[in-house]
What we know:
Shape: elongated
Oligomer: single chain
Number of domains: 2
Strand content: 25-35%
Helix content: 10-25%
Largest sheet: 5 strands, antiparallel
Distance between the termini: 28 Å
Radius of gyration: 20 Å
Number of helices: 4
Strand order of the largest sheet: 4-3-2-1-5
Structural class: alpha+beta
CATH topology of the largest domain: SH3 type barrels
Amino acid sequence: MKSFKEILQKSKETKEILSIYFYGDDDSDFWAGYIEDYNDELISIKHFTKYGVPDGIIVKEIANLKRIDFEDDYTKALQYIIDNSAELHKEEPFKMPLTKDENLLKQVVGTENIVRLEIDDDYPCGFITRLSDEDLTLHWIGEEGEDYGKSVFKIEDITTIRVNDIAARKRKMLFQWRKNKSRD
């Protein structure tokens, strides 16, 4: 079992991504990044957003260090996003002409375009595999690229459609990464 100091030192030397929790922060809040430096009193973290973008340096008191997650699914996925950040931030061109007589979703059925739908304060995201006048089937992809299987939704319940936005592109990238990892 590694100690806090061993984990901090390894991250500082190798730039290994960590999820770092501190006392006084909300239990669901953590800082993700690698260790820039630390001493007996302070720790500095090179922080990254969930989209792999460098987001400054966070300095906290080391005495408030509560927990460090490392070598877990989230940190591995974030490392992949950081390594492929340029690709993630490249928006694929897509036009969605607005027509009165045609269901807009027909343009994305069976394509590699990933959609996020708004349905009653829920935001399912994935690939539309089937569409009728009443409902659609969505191959649902989780926030970290997990394959949630397929779900059917009523068309009338959809209030917003987002195609290829950054949150959806991140899910798609991690979904493909997970598929490739499982083949290895």
